[in-house]
Amino acid sequence: MRLHLLAAATALTLALAGCASSGGLHPDGTPMDPSSLKAERSLAKLQVSPAAWPQADWWTGLGDAQLNALIAEALRDNPSLAVADARARQAQAEAGIANAARSPTLNVGAAVDATRLPGTAFPPSFGAGHYAPADYLYASFKWDLDLWGGKRAAWEASLGQARAAEIEARAARIELSGNVARAYVQLGYAYAQQDVAKAELARSQEAGTLTHQRVDAGIDNQLQLKQTDSEVASAEGQQAVADRAVDAARSALSMLLGKGPDRGLDIARPQLMQPSLLTVPANLPVDLLGHRADLVAARWRVEAANKNIKAAKTEFLPNISLSALTGFLAVGKGVNPLQMPARFYSVGPSISLPIFDGGRLRANLNGSDAQYDLAVAQYNQTLVGALNEVSDDYDAVNSVQLQIEAEQRALNAANDAWKLAELRYKAGIGSYLEALSARQQLLVAEQRMAALSAQQTDLSVQLIQALGGGYRPQADAELSPPTSNRS
């Protein structure tokens, strides 16, 4: 008896020694601490306010009722949002599947078939040697005990992925509202370009008329006349380019609204929008974590990847399951399958331990480690990019304001110079080249002012987006996945 026990113990020791092991496998990624990102000097000139975060409906601050309606329309009808919502529902369904794997299963079934029992294995009383009907009813129960918490970890990982997908669906709406606002700004800029082109065409045509009069009077020659004709033709070309820019901006808005191109034809010219005046929160690197949806989603994906590692490690450990089977079986004609002698049942626990699997478990764990490292790297990359994006956008907003002030002075001077040159040319004391030079300077100043005005509003929208676009974390959007008392 002792020899048998010794042999069994030796066999068990050898089996355990050969079990699959997770030794030596671990992730390498480390989430970045936001406070470690130095930004004090870069953000030193920024205006700080504790209530600096954009509002959820920040676009109303631009002062255009049509824009408000367009963003509402896009948030209702754009098909890309349906894609994001479907992904969120898919992730929620996967979380439900992972949660169901933690619960026991109970199945019932019934079947009727014809069976030929071999005479070498069954006595004649069982109907051996010929076909006989077989009726059976059964119920089965199985429950894999989650001794090491692997199934719970897998469920929590799925919850994290579902939460990330839900937040990304909200991020898609934030991004869409920003894209509509920027496309609307571009439409306003296209109209401003159209105004500049029309004004330049009118000036060139007026100069052409005057040059014709001077040529007829013998003051100018055909050279000046050809030059004015060239200027008129060039201005007409710029007018066509400006008209096309308006059509393109309308088409871009139609796509963002999820509508056909005719929808853009009904969009009126944007009003003169005022850029939002924004300040920056005092503790920007840390506070950004909770106000940018992409950062919140990235944090959830890191936590989900961490739970997947735990679930993968439990695969190396013994697993215990409980199972039971009961039912009725009747073979032969005229036999009642529901009578007590026809019953059968079995019940008992089972234990399994992976010994050799060709490296599948180690490869699975190694893949989970790599997925965690990837999630951490993507989180770190998003964090660094977010902080630098805010700083750069704020600097750009301040810079373009200074450029506008300088360009306004240049535009005023160019306009005065053109009026003086035009008067001198009409009076016959100025040259054509003098007037042409003044007109070209005015055209350049008008084009730059239109571009800077649009850029100022566009950068304002970009800064709002960099600060989270009005995202507010909900009460359940904590870093760790929610817990449950369900076993």
Summarize the structure.
The protein has 10 helices and 4 strands, in the order H-H-H-E-E-H-H-H-H-H-E-E-H-H.
Structure report:
The chain has 487 residues and is α+β, with helices and mostly antiparallel strands. It has two domains: 20-102 and 149-318 and 359-466, Outer membrane efflux proteins (OEP); 105-145 and 319-352, Outer membrane efflux proteins (OEP). It has ten helices and four strands. Helix 2 packs across helix 4, helix 4 (150-216) runs antiparallel to helix 5 and helix 4 (150-216) packs antiparallel against helix 8 (293-314). The model is unreliable at 5-14 and 475-487 (pLDDT under 50).
Shape category: elongated
CATH class of the largest domain: Mainly Alpha
The order of strands across the largest sheet is 1-2-3-4
Binned, the helix content reads 55-70%
- SS-based class: alpha+beta
SSE succession: HHHEEHHHHHEEHH
Kindly report the average pLDDT value. 80
How many DSSP H or I helices?
10
The profile of the biggest β sheet is:
4 strands, antiparallel
Low-confidence stretches: 5-14, 475-487
CATH fold naming of the largest domain: Outer membrane efflux proteins (OEP)
The oligomeric state of the chains shown is single chain
| Overall tally of structural domains | 2
Query: How many β-strand stretches?
Result: 4
- Using only C-alpha atoms, the radius of gyration works out to 38 Å
Second rung of CATH, namely the architecture of the largest domain = Up-down Bundle
- Amino- and carboxy-terminal Cα gap: 42 Å
Q: Strand-residue fraction?
A: 5-15%
Q: In CATH, what is the homologous superfamily of the largest domain? A: Outer membrane efflux proteins (OEP)
